[in-house]
Amino acid sequence: MMMKKPDRLSALIKQFRIKARVYPVGVGDDVNRQDSHPAPNLFIIHEGGPGSSHTLFGDQVGDQVGKAPALVFFPHGAPPAFELKDDSDNVEYVCASVDTGGDANPIAIALPDVVTVKFDEAMPLQAVTDILLEEALAPRCGAQAVIDRLCEIVVIRLLRHLIETGKAEVGLVAGLAHPNLSLAIVAIHDNPEKNWRLEDLAEISAMSRTHFVNIFRDVVGVTPGEYLSSWRLTLVRMEIARGASLKSIVQKVGFSSSAALSRAYKRRYGISPRQELARLA
Predict the structure, then answer these.
(1) Cα(202)–Cα(198) distance, integer angstroms
(2) What is the maximal distance between C-alpha atoms in the chain?
(3) pTM of the predicted model, to two decimals?
(4) First vs last C-alpha separation in the chain
(5) Which residues contact 198 (CB under 8 A, 6 or more apart)?
(6) Which domains does the chain have, with CATH numbers?
């Protein structure tokens, strides 16, 4: 019987809600907007002649994209000097501002500064972008809500594509792409409160303890223990922001005591959880 693959994204999406705002066609001409809306960082190019992506993005990004149709995503925001140039009459594109949960989201941190995908190499992704573009280029009743939700699905399918194709060399995306390590990482994400031992995680990954530790460090970039602690502290900070009590957080996240949580939190963030709660009050 074939083993069912673990759901590598649901725990992350549950904790870090993806939010997208698609701008009206043409707004992308001024990427560094000065109004209340964040600058676009996701661009979907639908049609155009040879080199149309170069026309839009210039040589640096255009060389990675090639010809349309394609997607360009700046997970950490478009660089300050980035300029979108639309001097072609036969290019159709939309742009959006996408927030994957801020710097707290480990998968967002693991992504490179720019992600480019050619749709002829990612047909499931193109299937959604085609619908998004249809709605954006011929808006109807309720279009904005539909378009924004579709854009969130585009980002989820983009993350799937990056994981399934193993585009990242080191980091969480690379770990989730690994057929064995992903089992342990998903277990950590789903059950942070569990008293995980290296032997448990190695067994889940069908590896010896030593091999698991070495491969995890090489692929993810940190040790399993460091990743577990980082994930727990990320969840702690989110729970504090929601106004949860320290007692409930300790039980939910898996620290042995409030004192242990406080020490780890202060080492990472420079202030204690109680100081964080007071700051947010």
Answers:
(1) 6
(2) 63
(3) 0.82
(4) 53
(5) 209, 212, 213, 224, 225
(6) 10-165 (2.60.120), 178-280 (1.10.10.60)
